[in-house]
């Protein structure tokens, strides 16, 4: 996928995965039929915004605004690529 295609992509959680807060672990988890993944705060913040209605650039802008940071695009791109390769995002 070229950078332009990546920037215009609207990532969404694959239908077999569910993102939820787990009180017992005091963390966000990603549930799927074979198990679960405990997420760090950054991963959870990214996945919460992967709803299929926001481009990756919009998602990055929202994260930067929400957390008062700049320059996180490379890390967000890397995480989205990883999550896509793992099948979490489509």
From TrEMBL:
Keywords from UniProt, A to Z, are:
PQQ biosynthesis
**InterPro entries per record:** PQQD, PqqD_bac, PqqD_sf
Keyword match Glycoprotein: no
- Cross-referenced Pfam families: PqqD
Q: Does the keyword Thylakoid apply?
A: no
Task: Give the top-rank taxon of the lineage listed in the UniProt record for this protein.
Answer: Bacteria
Q: Give the record's subunit note.
A: Monomer. Interacts with PqqE.
Give the metabolic or biological pathway: Cofactor biosynthesis; pyrroloquinoline quinone biosynthesis
The name this protein goes by in its record: Pyrroloquinoline quinone biosynthesis peptide chaperone PqqD
Protein's organism: Cupriavidus basilensis
